[in-house]
Design brief:
The structure holds 2 protein chains of 2 kinds.
Chain A (H helix, E strand, L loop, with lengths): L6 H29 L19 H9 L2 H31 L5 H9 L10 H10 L7 H24 L3 H9 L4 H9 L4 H17 L2 H6 L8 H12 L3 H21 L1 H12 L2
Chain B lengths: L3 H4 L1 H8 L17 H29 L2 E2 L7 E2 L3 H8 L1 H34 L3 H12 L6 H12 L4 H8 L16 H26 L3 H9 L4 H12 L1 H16 L3 H6 L11 H10 L4 H27 L2
Antiparallel strand pairs in B: 1-2
Helix pairs in contact in B: 3-15, 4-15, 5-9, 5-12, 6-9, 9-12, 12-15, 14-15
Classes of the chains: A mainly alpha, B mainly alpha.
Chain lengths: 274, 316
């Protein structure tokens, strides 16, 4: 059943949503128009680039050493995400089984769910210095895998618990071992949970900032978020170049978002329900 | 029971889809014993223990010592904790983080509700999807990027001042992040920018689950937009609202990235937040014990605020 929509309802809706959209995209548009201005000028926040200086992006690309940065970020992701997903899955599976003592271990993981990383930075710094890892990407990779465990274990346990127990029972009656039940029966049924978890871990690694600032001493080991701070520190006075560089560094996140939009929204929303 | 897999594949498929409520059935057979569970959990527990639990215990221990991070440490008792509540730089950071809750959590949740309700009313699928995508964008880019973009927005030549000039409010123009009275709200609005889209999309998903016949019934009864919202939408979104509030309150209390990029806590301590203060105390002022006491207070604050909110979501 449809009701005629009043003109005022429609107008107010369009007005409110337009204001919100403008509020959302304005900072990005301002960066784009600024990045195309002449370097060394003092442009206004929104000024149409009459003679767009596309070479600013080329310069920022070099100044940020973008290819190396992309490689460094990718190496960090490769170090963190597969291990974090694997460990979460194994632990989630183990803890989804009804065995004595699992509650205690599970609670131990849950403690970490609301823990701000700020509470760990000082000991982590001294710990990793002691391990002589501070000047490598391991200083970021190892703590990130650890920090992802509470959510990952929670997530995968929920996934395995959502499967009907009959499936496991059926497999076991057929003589499957615990490993076979896991690998052949249960794992294929939680793939959508796995892909959401992978996307979340990827995004959290890619955008991690605090731990990079604290634990990465060598700018060439930065991830994308850390590179923004480095770039701001080096070119903060050259506004035009700063905007161009920031856009280049943000670009991969946007590209990946548009490529996997559906998965992204789903993953982030599921990820929030913790 | 054994035939259920083959007989009802649809049940299996739907149970595997995320978002379905967990179906708990007791397994009667225990093939996995207590000790072998440890094997499955061992890798996760090892890395979690080494890089989360151990540092957490260390932070707690540090907080009772005076230590510069290099030399010998001396017992401090509760003096580090006392200073958290008596030294302006320290308690200001906590007060500021509470102010940020208004901008990171309260305003985005309200805006998210408003826009979710409005987007639901859009008939065209495509227009609704586009609005959703645009509002969601800030959630995807690194927070540091948001910090850089907004630092430029707020600067003397930036968009905010330009717009004020355009509408004849030139007298209001100033450097927003450098001004004592506007710096904190200005940083807060960066948070609003980041979290509003997240709240909108999450609440939209919640609204989509509400039975449309409820709305039709309400309209037949002559309910207006507001009645509809209060009687149907709001109560049904309780679970999603709790998630929104939880995530955004943690984001406010544990904020670091945006403040680090935009203001470094200044001017004065106007935008100092616990995360940044912990960082500065540890690595710049080298008072690790003091930083750790603030960290412990922060952990407790987060728990004290989040646990009641979570409980609210669980009871129905």
């Amino acid at each position: 059943m449809k009701f005629a929509e009043s003109l005022s309802a429609r107008t107010s809706r369009i007005a409110v949503l337009s204001v919100l959209i403008v509020f959302t995209v304005l900072p990005l548009i301002s960066m784009i128009t600024t990045a195309l201005q002449k370097q060394g000028t003092e442009p206004l926040g929104l000024s149409f680039p009459t003679a767009p200086q596309w070479h600013n992006f080329a310069e920022a690309w070099t100044a940020a050493d973008f290819p190396e940065l992309l490689l460094s970020s990718a190496l960090i992701v490769i170090g963190v995400v597969p291990a974090a997903v694997l460990f979460s899955t194994l632990a989630g599976y183990g803890l989804a089984r009804r065995v004595p003592g699992r509650r205690l271990i599970y609670v131990l993981f849950i403690i970490g769910l609301t823990l701000p990383a700020e509470a760990l930075v000082a000991p982590l710094y001294y710990e990793l210095r002691g391990l002589d890892l501070l000047n490598s990407r391991w200083a970021l990779i190892l703590p990130l895998v650890g920090l992802f465990m509470p959510f990952g274990v929670f997530w995968m346990r929920t996934a395995f618990e959502s499967l009907p127990a009959e499936i496991t029972e059926a497999a076991e009656i057929d003589g499957a071992s615990v490993w076979q039940t896991f690998r052949r029966v249960q794992l294929p049924l939680v793939t959508s949970w796995l892909s959401s978890l992978t996307i979340l871990f990827f995004l959290w690694t890619w955008n991690q900032f605090l731990l990079v600032i604290v634990l990465i001493t060598n700018p060439s080991d930065d991830n994308m978020a850390g590179a923004l701070a480095t770039f701001q520190g080096q070119h903060g006075t050259n506004l035009v170049l700063l905007c161009a560089g920031a856009l280049i560094i943000i670009a991969p996140s946007l590209v990946i978002f548009f490529a996997f939009q559906r998965h992204f929204v789903r993953a982030l929303l599921q990820g929030a329900i913790k | 029971m054994t035939s259920s897999v083959t007989r009802e594949p649809s049940i299996v498929a739907s149970a595997a889809a995320p978002g379905t409520p967990a179906r708990r059935r007791r397994t009667r057979r225990r093939r996995l014993t207590g000790w072998s569970v440890l094997l499955w959990v061992a890798p996760a527990l090892a890395v979690y223990g080494a890089f989360v639990l151990y540092p957490l215990v260390e932070t707690f221990e540090y907080s009772f010592y005076n230590w510069d991070g290099i030399g010998a440490s001396s017992w401090a008792g509760f003096s580090n904790y006392a200073r958290v509540f008596t030294q302006p730089a320290l308690y200001t950071s906590i007060v500021n983080s509470f102010v940020l809750i208004i901008f990171f959590s309260l305003i985005p949740v309200c805006l998210g509700l408003l826009s979710a309700v409005l987007i639901r009313e859009i008939r065209g699928q495509r227009a609704g999807g586009l609005v959703r995508t645009l509002l969601f964008l800030p959630q995807v880019i690194p927070l540091a990027g948001a910090g850089i973009a907004w630092t430029w927005m707020y600067s003397p030549n930036g968009v905010v001042n330009q717009l004020l000039g355009a509408v004849g409010l030139g007298a209001e123009q100033h450097a927003w992040l450098a001004d004592f009275s506007t710096a904190l709200p200005a940083v807060g609005i960066i948070g609003t920018w980041v979290t509003t889209g997240f709240c909108t999309v999450l609440l939209l998903v919640g609204i989509a689950k509400i039975d449309p016949s409820l709305y039709e019934a309400a309209r037949i009864d002559g309910a207006g937009r507001w009645r509809e919202f209060v009687a149907i939408t709001l109560p049904d979104l309780r679970r999603e609202l709790v998630v929104c509030v939880t995530v955004t309150v943690i984001a406010a209390l544990a904020s670091f990235d945006v403040v680090y990029i935009a203001t470094q806590g200044g001017p004065g301590y106007q935008t100092m937040v616990p995360g940044l203060e912990i960082y500065q105390l540890t690595f710049l002022q080298q008072t690790v014990g003091q930083a750790s006491a603030l960290a412990v207070v922060l952990v407790i604050l987060v728990l004290v605020l989040i646990l009641p909110i979570q409980r609210l979501g669980r009871q129905r």
